[in-house]
Amino acid sequence: MKIGRNTTQIKRIEIAQWVTANEWDYNGATKKFAVSYGQGSAWVKKFKQGGPETLQDRRGKDKFLTDEEKQVLRIKELEARNTYCFKAFLMK
């Protein structure tokens, strides 16, 4: 099993463009860019379907929340706290 590499969106775009420019040479891309055959073909497929925007890394939480999303999270937090306090009160 190979150790994973960090690739940026720019590097993924470069790999996808190189593969398409070199007559779909996935094996050449694996040697040149040190990525797996499957990962390279997945990036090319995404690039063909949706362009460069589809190759961005979208893992994890969004960094910025809208005011509406913050309010919804606050309401859920208060409801959970209210339920906890109500159950604690019933136990006494």
From TrEMBL:
GO MF, one term, reads: sequence-specific DNA binding
Write down a Pfam family by its short name.
Answer: HTH_28
Q: Which domain of life is it from?
A: Bacteria
Instruction: Cite the InterPro entries for this sequence.
Output: InsJ-like_HTH (IPR055247), Trp_repressor/repl_initiator (IPR010921)
Report the residue ranges that make up the Insertion element IS150 protein InsJ-like helix-turn-helix domain in this protein: 11-63
Name of this chain's protein: Insertion element IS150 protein InsJ-like helix-turn-helix domain-containing protein
